[in-house]
Design brief:
By secondary structure, this protein is of the alpha/beta class. The protein contains 15 helices and ten strands.
Length: 337
């Protein structure tokens, strides 16, 4: 018989973390699972760590070269045999009861996709500092169904809304197979967001529950700061490309929501085209960008309160992780969008 859930773990150079991810999947209270790891051309000992587990439910697939997270996930989905597909990032982990709880809730709601809140935990910490829903100032007391337009509207970059695209859902595999849904391997950013959108366009019933069962590890990654311009530019390209599809053009509400997203990306891209050279002390470049990008001032004013708060936390309160926290959450928001 096929397993109830296929846990797919794309991995790239996470030798220090992947054992915890694998262990959390294998130690689920729901035993009827398989765990599929796709190593995406790692140059460290990620594969060795993965293969050190002897559990028969574990399968390790190795890409000889780095193909990207979408290709790695697609390879795992094609190998999956479970009724449900659950994604787990190789530096994150599950609470022991996660899959069992989500499947019970999926049965009650007749869901095709179901997600939970995320625990946010600093690398090396012993307990979470918050959850994703709490951090966004939201409150849920029961399962919430998310429709296509609400999902897209929740993904506006820089807006104080709860971006559902940051969740880590589990998917009914029969639904994915029926509609031929895979990750878009031409999109190098926001692959989770577009995958979920594809499901919703095809009529998926998507629910999010208030309980957190997924631990998202917050790690300081300098590349987040260095690549913000590239990330936002790619998000603009992907959104604009998606809007050219006839099925999207024929949905006015969806076009409106995506247009608002695209405008927000462009506005923040203008902002960072000034901020990045300022941080690099390239003053003439920054000045030229200010002249070219009047949106800089509106975004700067909207961000000023948070900028001041972060600096007070860092310089006065001595919270040295505040910028890492901020950048990791910003990274998550950019990816989801």
């Amino acid at each position: 018989m096929n397993p109830k859930v296929s846990v797919i773990i794309p991995a790239y150079n996470t030798e220090a973390y992947i054992a915890k991810a694998i262990q959390s999947a294998l130690e689920q209270t729901l035993n009827d699972i398989e765990v599929i790891i796709v190593d995406d051309g790692s140059s460290d000992k990620t594969v060795e760590v993965a293969k050190s587990f002897t559990d028969q439910r574990l399968k390790v697939i190795v890409n000889q070269q780095n193909l990207g997270v979408s290709a790695a996930r697609n390879r795992a989905i094609k190998a999956a045999k479970g009724e449900w597909v659950a994604v787990l990032d190789s530096d994150d982990w599950y609470a022991p009861e996660r899959l069992e709880k989500l499947l019970l809730l999926a049965a009650k709601t007749n869901a095709d996709i179901i997600a939970d809140d995320l625990y946010l935990i600093h690398d090396g910490a012993t307990s979470p500092w918050s959850t994703f829903i709490q951090e966004n100032g939201e409150y849920l007391d029961e399962a919430l169904q998310i429709d296509l337009i609400s999902f897209v509207e929740s993904g506006v970059y820089g807006e104080p809304v709860l971006p559902f695209g940051l969740s880590k859902p589990i998917f009914k595999r029969e639904f994915l197979l029926k509609h031929g849904i895979l990750y878009d391997e031409t999109v190098s950013m926001a692959e989770d967001f577009w995958f979920d959108v594809e499901c919703l366009i095809n009529g998926a019933r998507f629910f999010i529950v208030p309980e957190p069962y997924y631990f998202y590890r917050s790690r300081p990654i300098s590349l987040v700061r260095q690549s913000i311009l590239s990330r936002l530019n790619q998000c603009c390209i992907a959104t604009n490309s998606f809007m050219q599809q006839e099925r999207v053009k024929n949905n006015p509400a969806l076009m409106l929501a995506l247009s608002y997203n695209l405008a927000s990306y462009k506005k923040h891209l203008a902002y960072y085209q000034v901020v990045v050279p300022i941080k690099q002390r390239r003053w003439l470049t920054a000045l030229r960008e200010i002249i070219k990008n009047p949106h800089f001032f509106s975004v700067f004013i909207s961000q000023l309160n948070n900028i001041i708060k972060r600096r007070i936390q860092y310089y006065v309160m001595g919270n040295k992780s505040v910028f890492d926290m901020s950048y990791n959450l910003q990274k998550k928001r950019t990816i989801a969008n």
